[in-house]
What does this fold into?
Amino acid sequence: DADVTQTPRNRITKTGKRIMLECSQTKGHDRMYWYRQDPGLGLRLIYYSFDVKDINKGEISDGYSVSRQAQAKFSLSLESAIPNQTALYFCATSDLQGNGADTQYFGPGTRLTVL
Amino acid sequence: AQKVTQAQTEISVVEKEDVTLDCVYETRDTTYYLFWYKQPPSGELVFLIRRNSFDEQNEISGRYSWNFQKSTSSFNFTITASQVVDSAVYFCALSPSFMDSNYQLIWGAGTKLIIKP
It folds into this structure.
């Protein structure tokens, strides 16, 4: 079984709909991240969480919210989806090592299309 | 400024050729980490290597090798005797240790590598 799983893997939705992307991990890592990937732009960080009580905004958090339900679960919500949120979304986890030594491990990605 | 530049947007070679992917970084930190990830056509991101700023030894793993040179702020990735399965987008990333960064990864834009049979 994969260490980091994301559901759904693909989703098509309409403008204005609320949508939730879920991430679960069995790696036992404290830190979890949500990224989006757009063609030609690489990865951009949306939110990150260093533990259950710690949530931080990333580079592009507007229009998104997150919930860290447990150490192993981190969900991303789009309250009112818009077409420019069409992208590939990745969840990642890392183990606290400090000093920049964390290695991030990624889920398989969720391809979201907003019509 | 903290930045990662992968100047090669796309590289295309014929199978069995050697190919080098360039990564140049900028950071004000003395301690930092560099990473390479692979994204095959199936879309997942696969961790390849992590290197810290104090270790300038080259790393070799099978057909993959990495050359880290602090003097030129580069962390280049070479694939020897390339194979079609190496076709992917490769990302270089920097993790500064500077506290304000909260250890966030700084990503390059990626290099798309096409290996032709």
